[in-house]
Amino acid sequence: MRIGQGFDVHQLVEGRPLILGESQSLMKKDY
């Protein structure tokens, strides 16, 4: 599930972090 590619991960993470595991995975892949 790649949300960073076509989704505002920044807004989601800043507004309300998704599943801990999901958010961490995105952060590691995106950032």
Name its key features:
31 residues, 58% helix, globular
Structure description:
- It is a single chain.
- This protein has one domain.
- It has 31 residues and is mainly alpha-helical.
- The longest helix is centred in the C-terminal third of the chain and has 11 residues.
- Helices cover 58% and strands 0% of the residues.
- The two termini are 16 Å apart.
- The model has no long low-confidence stretch (mean pLDDT 58).
- Keywords: Lyase.
State mean pLDDT (0 to 100 scale): 58
Fraction of helical residues: 55-70%
Which consecutive residue ranges, at least 5 long each, have pLDDT under 50? none
Rounded to the nearest angstrom, the radius of gyration is 8 Å
| Cα shape | globular
Strand-pairing-aware structural class: mainly alpha
- What is the terminal-to-terminal distance? 16 Å
Instruction: Count every helix, treating DSSP H or I runs of 4 or more residues as helices.
Output: 2
Work out the count of structural domains: 1
